[in-house]
């Protein structure tokens, strides 16, 4: 024991007096690979956290805005290359197209409804409002979109619905005749020249403010029977168990809106996000894409989650459609400055700023129609959160965190001035080293001892969730605050920009938390112990 104590004492003494230095430059290989749009194992993008929880299938496409949705499934590899930047007055999802017809394999465009004539777009001219939103409050969102990739897309992207186009490519020039067309029923701003695409454009959107109390009194139904049939139609081959599951999950809802939220919550909490779902789980019993996800795979990415919610909502006679576009993206690290956070008067709760949107942010979600409120977005994918516009007088108050008693700061004071001999420090280090050895020998008993002291015997999954919350509280005390509009992924990404040496540690915490929170697989006690050790390390090292 004596040599062990001496070695540990010396390590503690050195560790408390030698500062760590974060890397100032990225390695040339990573810079080159990123410039080529290829994947390097880094922590980037809203969807850029590859899952390693299940076996990976091969032959996958890359993430991005797909234009063929008639046959969904399989998996994809992450493409982190930037696609566009969006300078916006409100954080949002950037909507592209909607699909109305589910085939059992994917989504296709339905036949155009009679009277749904396209509207050619003039500069600054108001776009037609196709649905009744008389009961809804709205907010104008101004956006300037700058394309980084030169690929042509069939639509212009923006917060939904777009209400006017301010300019395309040139602020002073008129919009070329027939280059743009607005389809009011689909909420699509179609680009009609497949050979070129704007390098930049400015649009204004009139976004619905979320009014949950009002929505609970509204029916999810179209007054026009033709539209109602189109957005509730399902293939005759849809297995009955999909309809039965939708009824079972939503049984406690007293309104259409509550039923929709129950379906959304069920999918978010009972299924696992995985960009490469394990297709060996498919039994061949069913050919329906949604049925396979709900009863066989039980894991997948956004296309699986969103398709399942749209089909389940339609089975309850609620008009729903499948929507694809991009998640918000991320704000640049230089907007904050090194270690600086937006807080107090400097923090804008709307999430205004310039977002970098990558191909890995390509996403799909669901819209359901409510009378008097129009199309309302729902986010069924685990780990994602739709950035709703909330009325100021109805905004939820910021959550308060109970104050945690500060730990003594022994060992953190400057050691440039010596007030005595070094031997007391060595002796203290030896004592600490001896204590460390005891903790190492008894490490397997520590979780049980800790849980007993707290009055509860947590499962391994629950322990990881509790430790994550403890880390978030300590991060907040050290200036790393998770804002109300941020998901845990977005907060950790932002922290990683200012605390680069902890990037891999933060990624490990996030992967473990999502596995423990959303996966149906039980975490082992050893994994929970390793996670608790990682949290203790981060709390001790964060400044």
Total number of helical segments?
Answer: 14
Shape verdict: globular
Q: How many strands, which pairing sense, and closed or not: the largest β-sheet?
A: 6 strands, mixed
Total strands: the figure is 19
Radius of gyration over C-alpha positions, nearest whole angstrom: 26 Å
Unreliable sequence segments: 20-27, 29-33, 35-59, 333-347, 393-420
Level-1 CATH class name of the largest domain:
Alpha Beta
Instruction: Output mean pLDDT.
Output: 79
Distance between the termini: 33 Å
Share of helical residues? 25-40%
Per CATH, the architecture of the largest domain is: Roll
Strand percent estimate: 15-25%
What class would the helix/strand composition place it in?
alpha+beta
**CATH topology-level fold name of the largest domain:** C8orf32 fold
Domains (count): 2
Account of the protein in words:
This protein is of the alpha+beta class. It contains 14 helices and 19 strands. The strands form six sheets. Strands 3, 8, 9, 12, 16 and 19 form a six-stranded mixed beta sheet that branches. The protein has a four-stranded antiparallel beta sheet with strand order 4-15-17-18, covered by helices on one side. A three-stranded antiparallel beta sheet has the order 7-10-11, with no helix packed on it. Helix 11 runs parallel beside helix 14 (525-541). Mean pLDDT is 79; it is low at 20-27, 29-33, 35-59, 333-347 and 393-420.
């Amino acid at each position: 024991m004596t040599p062990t104590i001496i070695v540990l004492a010396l390590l503690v003494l050195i560790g408390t007096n030698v500062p760590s230095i974060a890397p100032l430059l990225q390695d040339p290989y990573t810079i080159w690979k990123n410039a080529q749009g290829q994947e390097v194992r880094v922590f980037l993008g809203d969807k850029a956290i590859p899952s390693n929880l299940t076996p990976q299938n091969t032959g996958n496409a890359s993430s991005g805005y797909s234009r063929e949705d008639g046959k969904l499934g399989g998996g994809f590899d992450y493409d982190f290359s930037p696609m566009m930047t969006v300078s916006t007055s409100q954080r949002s999802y950037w909507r592209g197209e909607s699909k109305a017809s589910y085939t059992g394999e994917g989504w296709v465009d339905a036949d155009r409804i009679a009277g749904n004539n396209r509207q050619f777009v003039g500069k600054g001219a108001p776009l037609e409002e196709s649905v009744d939103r008389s009961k809804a409050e709205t907010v104008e969102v101004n956006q300037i979109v700058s394309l980084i990739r030169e690929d042509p897309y069939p639509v212009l992207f923006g917060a939904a619905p777009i209400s006017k186009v301010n300019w395309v490519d040139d602020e002073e020039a008129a919009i070329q005749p027939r280059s743009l067309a607005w389809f009011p029923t689909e909420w699509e701003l179609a680009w009609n020249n497949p050979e070129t695409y704007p390098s930049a454009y400015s649009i204004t959107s009139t976004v619905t403010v979320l009014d949950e109390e009002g929505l609970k009194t509204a029916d999810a139904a179209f007054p026009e029977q033709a539209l109602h049939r189109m957005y509730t139609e399902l293939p005759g081959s849809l297995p009955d168990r999909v309809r039965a599951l939708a009824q079972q999950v939503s049984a406690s809802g007293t309104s259409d809106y509550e039923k929709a939220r129950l379906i959304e919550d069920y999918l978010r909490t009972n299924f696992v996000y995985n960009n490469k779902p394990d297709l060996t789980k498919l039994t061949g019993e069913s050919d329906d894409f949604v049925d396979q996800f709900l009863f066989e795979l039980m894991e997948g990415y956004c296309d699986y989650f969103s398709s399942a919610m749209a089909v389940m909502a339609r089975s309850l006679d609620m008009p729903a459609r499948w929507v694809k576009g991009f998640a918000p993206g991320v704000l640049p690290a230089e907007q904050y400055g090194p270690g600086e956070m937006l807080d107090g008067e400097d923090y804008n709760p709307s999430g205004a700023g310039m977002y970098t949107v990558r191909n890995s942010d390509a996403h799909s979600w669901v819209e359901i129609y409510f009378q008097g409120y129009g199309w309302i977005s729902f986010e069924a994918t685990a780990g994602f959160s739709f950035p709703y516009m909330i009325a100021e007088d109805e905004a939820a108050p910021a959550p308060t965190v109970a104050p945690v008693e500060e730990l003594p700061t022994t060992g953190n004071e400057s050691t440039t001035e010596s007030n005595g001999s070094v031997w007391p420090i060595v002796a203290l280090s030896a004592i600490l080293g001896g204590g460390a050895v005891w903790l190492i020998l008894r490490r397997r008993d520590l979780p049980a001892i800790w849980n007993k002291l707290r009055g509860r015997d947590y499962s391994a999954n629950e322990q990881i969730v509790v430790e994550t919350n403890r880390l978030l509280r300590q991060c907040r005390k050290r200036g790393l605050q998770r804002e109300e509009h941020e998901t845990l992924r977005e907060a950790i990404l932002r922290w990683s920009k200012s605390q680069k040496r902890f990037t891999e540690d933060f990624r490990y915490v996030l992967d473990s938390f999502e596995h423990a929170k959303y996966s149906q697989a039980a975490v082992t006690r050893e994994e929970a112990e390793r996670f608790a050790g990682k949290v203790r390390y981060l709390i001790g090292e964060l400044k």
